[in-house]
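User: Second chain of the day. Same drill as before.
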Amino acid sequence: RERRASGATNFEAKERATMINDEGQNVDLYIPRKCSWSNRLIGAKDHAAVQINIGHLDESGLYTGKFTTFAIGGSVRHRGESDSGLDHLWQKKKAELGQ
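Assistant: Same format as last time:
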């Protein structure tokens, strides 16, 4: 590999190749998730990770058909921080939604 003046190699300077179909949709086979609390990548072998959909309610308490998705990594669950993390994330999201 040749080095550039900035210290980056040729491989690092190129953009990551993605597979996009004729309609402009991303069709990669595996897109890694990130933990909503720690922002770490959730690996394919992290079997302790969970993804939770929290439904949105209207003023009368009825489900509106919309939801927010949170992903929590196994390391966060192992440390026992998932409950407080989800609570914090949901309070922040509720403030954004104005609920």
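The CA atoms of residues 37 and 85 lie 6 Å apart.

User: Great, on to the next one.
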